[in-house]
Write a structure and sequence with these properties.
about 450 residues; alpha+beta; Double Stranded RNA Binding Domain; hpI Integrase, Chain A; 3 domains; 16 helices; about 50% helix; about 10% strand; elongated
């Protein structure tokens, strides 16, 4: 590498660049600012640079300005300022750039998105410790509702006012959705769930010593739990059952093969949600757990038929075994006879189950149809305002009030979290036979309740 020392002037710089042979790198040092030099690379590009000597003796150089972007006087002025800054204890340009990059990286890692990613990846916040349903729902709430607003914000700078504003905005957006019109407080449940996710993330961050404050630790802004609902009319279950049964029945063949084929395909598309509703009423399990059922979860031993729901699929995050009544067996086998997929209630593509809210939406459509028919007759439909989940409430109530089943067994039938109180903690008896007896009684009761009235 060639080196020379001279006063760098515009004329001298132009000559040095012109005479460069293009074979090796050259450095031409300035006599006025000894640590500044003109660097010419083998490809002919030239720039004014400054030699940096750090307190520990290490050396590096930093580019001040390209030779064709300014006169040497400008580069000399810049070099003097940098040397003066370093003499006063300031960092050199190379170190400053490195620190700037490091600070930018720290800022990226300090965003709410980065924090939420760490939270979701923590072993104690993932399956199997956490149920798959809960994990997937948290991921969905973050992706669709929280990260679009908070994702790039530094998580330590998010205040309670910011969280309150976001929760109110989420509620307002959700309340405009057509499906929200059936709720007593549209959008409230979604907004409160989003607040719960944010609160959980910051609670974890505090435990990990990543921050000291939880901006989501305030009371729910919206009431999302309805008052205790009245008992579902038994006639409502009969009406719904009759409507779903009619939808499942094959249409009488017509002269048009095309029309017959279309009708069959329509019923096959609607069959999963219709059967899921009926099984919800018979098994009293949660609709989301029913639609996620798979073929390999069933034991069809005669008289001991059983549906084993894996832990990641239940709300309690524990394996739950559902004894199947004769009616439940009939409905599940009917659902399985419609296809060869792994899922009991497959979507149209067959690559997964139907939507978790499919049964709920089907219930609403059938209910509205019943209400409209009754209104035309000047009557009130027993299905008015009745919700899908009221089936579980009806089953739980009638088990105790009419079928002589103890409250503890009735609770076990609907897979509520077990009582952890001290007087139950030491009871280790097996209640599976009592649960099977209760489910058989309830299955028979559903058949009785849904029998069409005698003409």
């Amino acid at each position: 590498m060639a080196n020379s020392r001279l006063k760098l002037t515009q004329t001298a710089v132009t000559r040095l660049i012109r005479e460069h042979d293009g074979k090796k790198k050259e450095r031409h040092w300035d006599t006025e600012v000894p640590k500044m030099f003109l660097s010419i690379t083998p490809n002919g590009s030239a720039a004014y640079k400054l030699l940096i000597v750090r307190p520990d003796g290490t050396k590096s150089d930093t580019k001040l300005i390209a030779a064709n972007d300014g006169a040497p006087e400008i580069a000399r002025t810049m070099a003097i300022k940098e040397l003066g800054r370093m003499a006063l204890g300031g960092a050199d340009p190379v170190t400053r750039r490195r620190e700037t990059k490091a600070e930018a990286k720290r800022e990226r890692e300090a965003t709410f998105k980065a924090l939420s990613d760490h939270f979701m990846e923590a072993p104690e916040k993932r399956p199997p410790v956490l149920s798959q349903r809960t994990y997937a729902e948290r991921e969905r709430l973050l992706r669709e509702h929280i990260l679009p607003t908070f994702g790039e914000k530094p998580f330590r700078k998010i205040a309670k006012a910011d969280v309150r504003q976001l929760i109110r905005e989420i509620r307002e957006r959700a309340a405009k959705h057509p499906r929200a019109s059936t709720s007593s407080n549209p959008g409230a449940k979604l907004a409160n769930e989003c607040q719960g996710v944010i609160r959980a993330i910051y609670g974890w961050a505090i435990a990990e010593d990543l921050t000291e404050a939880n901006p989501a630790s305030f009371k729910k802004l919206f009431k999302d739990t309805p008052e205790k609902r009245p008992a579902m009319p038994e006639e409502a279950l009969r009406l719904m059952w009759a409507a779903l049964t009619a939808d499942l029945e094959e249409k009488t063949p017509t002269d048009s093969a095309t029309a017959e084929k279309e009708e069959r395909e329509r019923k096959q598309r609607g069959a999963p949600s219709a059967l899921a509703i009926m099984l919800h009423a018979v098994t009293l399990q949660r609709p989301a757990e029913i639609v996620a059922a798979k073929r390999d979860q069933f034991d069809w031993t005669p008289g001991r038929e059983l549906w084993r729901i894996p832990a990641g699929q239940t709300k309690t995050n524990e394996v739950y075994e559902v004894p199947l009544s004769l009616l439940a067996v009939k409905l599940f086998k009917k659902a399985l006879s419609l296809h060869n997929h792994a899922w009991v209630f497959p979507n149209e593509a067959g690559d997964g189950p139907i939507r978790h809210d499919g049964p709920k939406q089907r219930w609403i459509r059938v209910r509205e149809r019943s209400v409209a028919v009754a209104k035309k007759k000047g009557q009130t439909s027993p299905l008015t305002a009745v919700q899908l989940y009221d089936c579980r409430r009806l089953g739980r109530t009638l088990m105790v009030d009419q079928l002589g089943i103890t409250p503890a067994i009735a609770e076990a039938c609907i897979n509520h979290a077990p009582d952890r109180s001290m007087h139950n903690r030491y009871y280790v008896g097996n209640t599976s036979e009592e649960v099977r007896r209760a489910m058989n009684l309830w299955g028979a009761e559903v058949e009785r309740l849904t029998e069409p009235p005698l003409a």
